[in-house]
Amino acid sequence: MKNFRKEILGLLLIAFISVNATCQEKTSSATDSKAKTEKKSKKKKKEKVRK
Would the pTM count as exceeding 0.70? Predict the structure, then answer.
């Protein structure tokens, strides 16, 4: 019975870590793309000012 509980606890821990890592990847990629968009818009503004 104790071994069964350890196995369940181990599986739950692995599942939690996997979900957490997936969420962090999605969050970081969203902020990365947002930063890239901001850089592009700044470049466009500078080009408009130069013209």
Answer: no
